[in-house]
Amino acid sequence: MVYVLNKLAVASQRTPGLRSFQFLNSNDLHKLEAFFLSFDFDQRRAYFGGGVSDQSVRNYCGTIDWVHTTAIARTGPYCPEAIALVVSQLSNDACAELSIACPLLCDQRPIIAALLDLAIEIGALQYRTLIVNRELANPELLSLLRDSDLTRSDCETVEINLADGHSRTAAC
């Protein structure tokens, strides 16, 4: 775990201004709610798979199982700017689902790349596989995975094999 905390510190040093990477927990629920509530209609539709109301966002945040969820945030001077959630799949404790949200209107690629790297490092401590839902994935995340020739266009998910340090597409 010390290695992961060092990775968070190094990633934070690379970010401009008063930005850092940190873990969120149940005490940060208000930050997570504010982050998701700041999404416009299209961002909510892309992340959640449909238009969701403010109350639905609050319900979603309120039902997060913090025992099985790791939240990594890139925070700015006032609030989280991007978040990666690693959620253990209860049906298979060797797998976790990865989602990354970044509503910033800038070049998101370096932010998403840093969150992906941190999620892989953290996930490797507990899981063999991270699963990314292609339909709900951030376009920059898919771009990073596609640049590595790791995806096929007909697949619904991308599996990141943490045990071997390689990524591959899921069987369709």
Descriptive account of the structure:
- With 172 residues, the chain is α+β, with helices and mostly antiparallel strands.
- It has one domain (2-169): 3-Layer(aba) Sandwich (Aminopeptidase), CATH 3.40.630.
- Helices cover 37% and strands 27% of the residues.
- It has helices spanning 2-14, 29-37, 41-48, 54-62, 109-123, 139-147; strands at 20-24, 69-75, 80-89, 92-101, 129-133, 157-161, 166-169.
- It has a seven-stranded mixed beta sheet with strand order 1-2-3-4-5-6-7, with helices on both faces.
- α1 (2-14) runs antiparallel to α5 (109-123).
- It is globular and about 40 Å long.
- The model is unreliable at 149-154 and 168-172 (pLDDT under 50).
Low-confidence stretches: 149-154, 168-172
Kindly provide the name of the CATH class. Alpha Beta
Helix count equals 6
Whole-number count of domains? 1
Compute the CA-based radius of gyration. 15 Å
Quick overview of this protein structure:
The chain is about 35% helix and about 25% strand.
Write the layout of secondary structure elements.
Layout: H1 2-14, E1 20-24, H2 29-37, H3 41-48, H4 54-62, E2 69-75, E3 80-89, E4 92-101, H5 109-123, E5 129-133, H6 139-147, E6 157-161, E7 166-169
Parallel strand pairs: 4-5
Antiparallel strand pairs: 1-2, 2-3, 3-4, 5-6, 6-7
Q: Which tags fit this structure?
A:
single chain; 172 residues; alpha+beta; Aminopeptidase; 27% strand; globular; disordered C terminus
